[in-house]
Amino acid sequence: MRFQLTDEQRDFREEVRMFAREEIEPKARDLDRAGELALMTEELSAALMSVASALALHLGVAAVVERFGTDEQRERLLPEMATYETVAALGLSERNAGSDKLAMETTAERDENAEKRGDDEGGDDESVGEWILNGHKRWVTNYLDADVVLTYAKTGPDEAAPHNVSAFLVPVEEFEVERVWDTLGARSAKAVEVTLSDVRVPDDRLVGEEGEAYVERGRVNTGVNVPARGVGIARAALEDALEYVEQREQFARRIGDFQGVRWTVGEMAERVDTARLLTLRAADRADRANRADSGEDLSREISMAKLHATQAAVDNANDALQLHGGVGYTTERHVERYLRDARLLTIAGGPNEGHRDALAEAVFARHSQE
Ligand SMILES: Cc1cc2nc3c(=O)[nH]c(=O)nc-3n(C[C@H](O)[C@H](O)[C@H](O)COP(=O)(O)OP(=O)(O)OC[C@H]3O[C@@H](n4cnc5c(N)ncnc54)[C@H](O)[C@@H]3O)c2cc1C
Description:
Layout: H1 7-24, H2 28-31, H3 34-47, H4 49-68, H5 71-82, E1 88-91, E2 107-111, H6 112-120, H7 125-128, E3 130-141, E4 148-154, E5 165-171, E6 176-180, E7 191-202, E8 206-207, H8 213-219, H9 225-247, E9 249-250, E10 253-254, H10 259-292, H11 299-323, H12 335-345, H13 352-369
Parallel strand pairs: 1-4
Antiparallel strand pairs: 2-3, 3-7, 4-5, 5-8, 6-7, 9-10
Helix pairs in contact: 3-4, 3-9, 3-10, 4-5, 4-9, 9-10, 9-11, 9-12, 10-11, 11-12, 11-13
The structure holds flavin-adenine dinucleotide.
Flavin-adenine dinucleotide binds near residues 99 and 354.
């Protein structure tokens, strides 16, 4: 099955590419830090969340390569990824592996024969070894624009979990596209379902240590990107609502003079500030933990930020739509899009219910240490 980009999608890709080249690449070193990433993501998301999603997923893959890749992988990929010449997507979730990623069914098996061929030819085992991947990935955002998918697959038995998952950089041509999802929001960053049938990749496509990809992933603090997207939408909704209620008049007065409206707007601002503070605190902690390579558990900070900022985005978008009245329910205004986009955030990056579990666990764990 072949998928062609529409003119609109091509333009979108070009815009993101230009933006990446002009704005991101010169600041790549700074953006590698969670604090700067959170600030940038908020700004992008306030304009169009899909751009922030696409970029965050791409940068998330870059962070894994940067942290756990070989020198050769870093040198080959990171300069091209910094300019968006090479676009990456994330292949982690599956039909039966949503919140529970360790339930993934995709497998990668080492082809010993390929290695033997290397022996026969007097070659280097490392360079001729191959992995054979079989399975599927359910939601691969960016796929239609991507060059490679960081694909997670089981390389060990279930009893060895979580030390039984490895990650591979698989070229997009190797997948078969089963479906392009039509989604409520985030419509300009399409997600697809893809399958892998006896796909062979050489050893140098394995990123990180064999069997440790799931654990390594937990050490890359990509967790601030979803909360930061929430802050962006919550803020944009507040700004649009303020502008509207200050000029719209009913009953011969500005609707922004009704106490009910004023309290709502005040509450919206409070949600933005608390969401941003929690997100920046999580980013700051992540940066400090990364610098010290402390492996510190940040689930308390990350989950608090995720829960608050994503709900703030939904609530502010909903309130902004209400304050716009009928026109808010039309595509004339941005607020309906904010609401559609915000709804993704309480699900993506792990549903909020799972984050409530993680937060509670961290709170109880800290209490028992005190
Ligand atoms: C538009 C879009 C883009 C995406 N892009 C990517 C991508 O690029 N790469 C990728 O790998 N994945 C991607 N995902 C997948 C995303 O990470 C998953 O959707 C998410 O992890 C949830 O998995 P699930 O949808 O299977 O929901 P499930 O895990 O099946 O959960 C369904 C519902 O069950 C409830 N639930 C789950 N766990 C608990 C719990 N512990 N306690 C109480 N209730 C619970 C919640 O209400 C939850 O919403 C994307 C998803 C979407 C929708």
